[in-house]
Design brief:
The protein has helices spanning 2-16, 39-49, 68-76, 97-107, 135-143, 146-149, 153-159, 186-191, 204-212, 238-255, and strands at 23-28, 55-60, 83-87, 91-93, 111-119, 125-126, 129-130, 171-172, 176-177, 181-185, 217-228. The chain is α+β, with helices and mostly antiparallel strands. Helix 1 crosses helix 4. The chain is globular, with a radius of gyration of 18 Å.
């Protein structure tokens, strides 16, 4: 439950500064349907009752594994909130993360979606913003051993926007951002139709980034800090590799192939 606790800690700081009204936490359970609600549903209800009245929590379950994007749509497309945060369960937020994000959105009404600065659990920087990839770069980054990647470091650095992304300055309009943390203005998320449900897993965030950019601007805000414990599809076994490749084909079919 560390992700949930970190989210509440960050929300309390934003609420204290009068940047956040009520907080509605929706956990989307993509587990197979069960005749009896999973035990953690009762735990969430007990946890919610122990929080201040401006914090509420609920679980959406029983729909089965509909995929990452379609699961998030169950919560986001029905929301009437001002802001909507898509947050992976493997992401921890810094206490001031939501405060910094909401302050940035208040100052920049033209921004509809925010990406954070991320590190892995060892403190190494992760680059969540990307340029549009070619097929060769994507496969190299996802599957090549490190000794091969070193020969193509400049190509990989360019893909990860290392030449323009830093820990000090916001960057406007990165082409693609990671779905592990996406803070939307809720009307922007809804008007885009949310995530495309035909991406079961992988590339649904890239697809949505491109569609969101048609109507609003995206911003990387380095003061919004998170720790990301996931990623690396190739390390998760053959099933994830197959899903990664299938989603990559779908993404390029939809948005255009670039081979090299």
């Amino acid at each position: 439950m560390s992700t949930l606790d970190d989210l509440v800690s960050s929300a309390r700081e934003a609420h204290r500064r009068e940047l956040l009204g009520s907080l509605n936490i929706v956990l989307v359970d993509n587990s197979p349907p069960e005749p009896i609600a999973p035990p953690y549903s009762r735990m969430i209800n007990q946890w919610s009752r122990a929080q201040p009245p401006w914090i509420a929590a609920a679980v959406i379950s029983g729909h089965g594994n509909v995929g990452f994007g379609a699961g998030h749509n169950l919560a986001g497309l029905a929301s009437d909130s001002v802001y909507h945060l898509v947050l992976n369960p493997d992401v921890n937020l810094a206490p001031e993360a939501l405060t910094c994000a909401l302050e940035f959105l208040r100052r920049h009404p033209e921004i509809g979606l925010i990406a954070p600065a991320a590190t892995n659990p060892l403190g190494r920087k992760e680059y969540l913003c990307k340029r549009y990839p070619c097929v060769a770069t994507l496969l190299l980054r996802a599957f090549a051993p490190n000794r091969i990647k070193r020969y193509f470091s400049s190509r990989l650095d360019w893909y990860e926007m290392r030449d323009v992304i830093n820990d000090r300055d916001p960057f406007l309009s990165p082409p693609l951002i990671s779905g592990c943390f996406m803070l939307f203005r809720t009307p922007v998320f809804r008007s885009a139709g949310g995530f495309a449900p035909d991406f079961f897993l992988y590339f649904e965030d890239f697809d949505l980034s491109l569609r969101i950019a048609r109507s609003t601007r995206i911003a990387y805000v380095p003061q919004v800090r998170v720790v990301h414990h996931g990623g690396y599809a190739a390390r998760k076994g053959p099933r994830h590799v197959v899903m990664f490749l299938a989603s990559a084909v779908r993404f390029f079919n939809r948005h255009g192939w670039r081979w090299f």
